[in-house]
Structure formats: structure tokens, C-alpha cells
From TrEMBL:
Phylogenetic classification of the source organism: Bacteria, Bacillati, Actinomycetota, Actinomycetes, Sporichthyales
Composition bias, Basic and acidic residues: 75-97
InterPro entries on file: CT398_CC_hairpin, Oxidative_Scav/Glycosyltrans, Zf-RING_7
Domain CT398-like coiled coil hairpin residues, every copy: 24-203
Domain C4-type zinc ribbon: 215-249
The protein, known as: C4-type zinc ribbon domain-containing protein
Region named Disordered: 75-103
Length: 257
């Protein structure tokens, strides 16, 4: 069906049915509002933000655990080095204490080695302490990230439950309004509903609007005197369209005619 104008292809529908078309529009507007509300529930954005942070924390936690594992290997090696030096120093000290070295040159060499081993052991023990401090910091970071991961998981669970509840509420109302809409549309002339649906699809969801006090409530434009006179001269059962926005224009009690 092509677009109808005031002058061509008139569609004649009882004025009462035209009024009911405004009720149909109100139900469709409500359904659109519910759909928009469902798409823009704040919980949806919150869940997306929490999911991003959860993934960030997961990656940071993996990195922290990897660092801790690397430091643990460094600590094990450093402690083994300390043990090795300590055992060697103990063997040398036992030889010295037991008087097993008689040569002055060998004695001097042994004493020098014991002193060198003592310095080496002290340096290695300092290195172990530094590694232990690094590992303590890494483990504190792991604990912090683990706690944050658990908080995020709890927040996600609560928010997802809230989203499910809000969505269920909206869906229930949408189903109720949809049922009312189907009943109302089923009682209207098919040709009127078809025209309404076509106009609505190309007019941001608004297919019919009231003519109130000389103004189209669809585009909010005041009709010119010429257009008002055309509407005034049109039989009440003939469907008229706004010359500005092309929506179905329904004449109501205070249309200003």
C-alpha cells in the first residue's frame, strides 16, 4: 500500500477505531520503553566493568604467582649456595682445629680460605635475605590480588542475580503489555493496523499521534490554517495524515478544529 495523503486513496475507519489506534500506540510505546530499559539496565554495565577488572586481576595474579615461583627457585639456589660454602668452611675449620696442617704455607692458605669462605657466606646470606624480602612482597601481592579476585566474584554474583531479577520483571511486564496489544490490534481493522505498522516502522516507533489544539503530537508541529481546514473538511471516518511527519493524525475532542 502506498502512502496515503488527505487527497488520495482515502482509508475510511470509524473514528472510535482511530481513537483505539492511539491506545495501540500507547501500548507499543510502553513496549519500546521496556525494551530500552532492558537494554540499558545499570547492572549490565556494572557486570561488563567487573568482567574487565576480573580479567585484569586474573592476569596480574598469574604474573604475581609466576614471579613468586621464579623467586622461590632463586631462593632455593641461594640457600644451597650458602649451605655449600658453610659445609666447606666447617671442613676447613675442622682440619685447622685438629692440627692436620703442619706446613706454615699450607696453614696460611687454609686460614685465608676460611676467611674468604666466611665473607662469601655472609654475602650469600645477605643475598638470601634480599630474595626472601622480594618473595614476601610477591606473596603479599598475591594475597592482595586473590582477595580482590574474590571480591569481584562476589560482586559479579550479586549483580548478575540483580540483573536476572530486573530482567524477569521487565519481561513479565512486556509479556502482559504484549498480550493487551495483541488483543487490541486484533479488534482493529486490518487495513488500519497495516498502515499504522508501516508508518511506525519508518517513524521511530510512532505511527499514530493525536491532533491536539491544532498541533500534531507526533512531530510537535502546529498545522497551518490550510492544513487545519483540510482536516476540518475531511469526514471523521477518513484517516488523515500529518503533512509534516506523515504519521496517522487522530482527531480528538480538543483537536482545535
Amino acid at each position: 500500500m502506498g502512502d496515503r495523503t488527505l487527497q488520495e486513496d482515502p482509508l475510511n475507519v470509524a473514528l472510535a477505531d482511530q481513537w483505539r489506534l492511539l491506545d495501540l500506540q500507547a501500548l507499543d510505546t510502553r513496549i519500546d520503553q521496556l525494551a530500552h530499559r532492558r537494554r540499558t539496565l545499570p547492572e549490565t554495565a556494572t557486570i561488563a566493568e567487573l568482567a574487565v577488572r576480573r580479567d585484569q586481576v586474573r592476569d596480574l595474579l598469574v604474573a604475581a604467582e609466576t614471579e613468586d615461583s621464579d623467586i622461590a627457585r632463586d631462593q632455593t639456589k641461594a640457600e644451597a649456595d650458602v649451605d655449600q660454602v658453610r659445609q666447606r668452611a666447617e671442613r676447613d675449620q675442622k682440619r685447622l682445629d685438629a692440627g692436620q696442617v703442619s706446613s706454615p704455607k699450607e696453614l696460611e692458605s687454609l686460614q685465608h680460605e676460611i676467611a674468604s669462605l666466611a665473607k662469601r657466606q655472609a654475602d650469600l646470606e645477605d643475598a638470601v635475605l634480599e630474595i626472601m624480602e622480594r618473595r614476601e612482597a610477591a606473596q603479599a601481592r598475591i594475597a592482595e590480588l586473590t582477595a580482590e579476585r574474590d571480591r569481584i566474584a562476589a560482586d559479579l554474583e550479586r549483580t548478575e542475580a540483580a540483573l536476572a531479577a530486573a530482567t524477569a520483571e521487565i519481561d513479565a511486564e512486556t509479556e502482559k503489555v504484549g498480550g493487551e496489544r495483541a488483543t487490541l490490534a486484533g479488534g482493529l481493522p486490518g487495513e488500519l493496523v497495516a498502515l499504522y505498522e508501516k508508518v511506525r516502522a519508518s517513524s521511530n516507533g510512532l505511527g499514530a499521534a493525536a491532533l491536539r489544539r491544532g498541533r500534531c503530537e507526533g512531530c510537535r508541529m502546529e498545522l497551518s490554517t490550510t492544513d487545519l481546514n483540510k482536516v476540518r473538511a475531511t469526514p471523521e471516518d477518513e484517516v488523515v495524515r500529518c503533512e509534516e511527519c506523515r504519521r496517522i493524525l487522530v482527531r480528538v475532542a480538543d483537536s482545535g478544529l
